[in-house]
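[Meeting: bench + compute handoff]

Bench side (C.D.) handed over the final construct sequence. Compute side (W.E.) agreed to return the predicted structure before the next meeting so the bench team could plan truncations. Sequence as handed over:
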Amino acid sequence: MEGHCLLVCTLLLLTCWTVSGQFCRSSYIQTAARVVFGEARGESMRGQIAVAYSIVNRVKHQGYPNTFNAVVYQKDSNGIYQYETLSVPSHNVSWRDAKRRNTFEYRNAVKASSDVLCGRTSDPTRCATDYCAYDPCPATNPNQWWRVTNKMKIGNHYFVCRVPA
């Protein structure tokens, strides 16, 4: 996979570095794919791309950490990862098994993540940092610090953008 990403990013150098080239690394792609796999593996490619873009959008958003790993591994006040799938042991087992067997779901999660992180696809949400499988939920509701905008449903998830209140 690492050679593939390097080859693709080399061939698409302008796109990769203009859009989000700093994230076009095998380790980041695998990390994002793990999130996509756990959060959206039953979704369409568009839904999986939207989840991967939530990582990139959070890195760029003032309300979240400003590095890839800090965003992905951010925990709430209860010690639960913001991307909850990372806190679920059975999801970790499923991910390792799918990766070992190179399943269709694993390959789709990697493709969606690679396409996003290497700048080969546009953001279907146009800015979403948060999403939830139902609405309303805390992730899709405004609070004292943030208003939600651009709420949209993609597959079984509701995505929102956040702007200061």
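W.E. noted at the follow-up: Residues 1-20 have pLDDT under 50 and may be disordered. C.D. will use this when planning the next construct.
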